[in-house]
Amino acid sequence: MPKIRVRHPYWHLALVAAFALAIPAANAAQQDNPAVNTACASLGVYIFVGGTGGFDGLENGAQFTELLQTGHVGLYEHANAVVAAEHPPSIIQAIESVFTGTGPGQAELGQVGANYFTLPPSYGYYQAVYIQNGLHPSEANVNTPSDTAPPGQLRKDLKLWREYVDAARTVGIETVAPIVGPNDPNEPKLGDHVFATNPYYTLERDEALYGKAIAFDVPPNFFLTGGSGPGYQKFIVQAIQWGSEHGLRTNMLLSPYPWPTNTKGKPDTFREFTNNTFSSDTQKFVSQLSQLQAIPSEWSVDNYEDPYAHDTPAVLPETVQNTTTAVGLWLAANASVYVNRPGNQGVICGPPASSDGSER
Question: Which residues does 149 contact at the CB level (< 8 Å), separation at least 6?
Fold first, then answer.
């Protein structure tokens, strides 16, 4: 099971057959529609690269020039990685220089108090970690304290979430996504449309609707091997579709998993991880989601299993399999993406090699 994402005070095919009947006919139909063609021809940034493993290496833009030149990639600003890159400050400055012109980027944070965004920089909160380092992300994916809330606690938890989101918007974060996924074997997932209907997920549904976004912590290898048990794969597919139907930013977080440890119980470095299958796993995972038309609006290659910010080989070069930038480059060339449009009439845009788009 993927480890629970760190909550730090700074932030901080059988499957196809099973779901084919659930896909609306309009989803599958190819459209010769000028609006579809326009949406798919001007996608902009929908892929992000970063995380903790090797984040500092992103200052070496010369080693992933093809990815940068796609015009589809931005910086994934994991709070712990940003803090590490401040030592010395020249690292984060160099990373920002490499990503100049790629948009404001996407942050990963922890849900603490709403004052995380409003306290002065001297407190070491958002302004010190992000704004003082020249980072102004317009999107955030958030590790929430809990995936659920009992009825008596629900109203209080939602109030805290709304205050947190409102505060985030004061610093330019337009969409705030809870990071979801029943990665715990004990979480409910059997049945149809479990995320959309089960009371257990009322908190996360309401968080996603208020934040106008939802993010999925789904390591490709974890998904392909059955996730946390029966029902997991269908849950993820239908939860993505639920987010699209509600016009949300839907963000798929891709990370290598499982990550080995050495004899001392410490995580291996990238080069010590000799059985890494991140690239091939991602390709199989994306192919399955594409066949099921469970397509997110963004893909984030977010290595958080490797905790070493200085493990540069984990992120580059883009020509080496399993690196963060190699996976990002493959996505830019091969992955479909969902584009929200007014009235929730979204478009699934095929990869650049394809001009096809399907409208829902």
Answer: 156, 157, 158, 202, 203
- φ/ψ (deg, to 5) at 228: -95, 10
The secondary element (H helix, E strand) that includes residue 251 is: strand 249-254
Collapsed DSSP state (helix, strand, coil) of residue 51: strand
> What is the tens place of the pLDDT at every residue in 125-183?
999 999 999 999 999 999 999 999 998 999 999 999 999 999 999 999 999 999 999 99
Amino acid at the residue 82: V
The percent of residues in the chain predicted with pLDDT above 90, rounded, is: 79
Phi and psi for 216 in degrees, rounded to 5? -120, 120
Residue with tokens 């996407």: 106
* Residues 292, 15: Cα–Cα separation, whole Å: 8
Q: What is the pTM of this model?
A: 0.90
The answer to whether residues 26 and 36 touch, using CB atoms and an 8 Å cutoff, is: no
Please say whether the beta carbons of 270 and 326 come within 8 A.
no
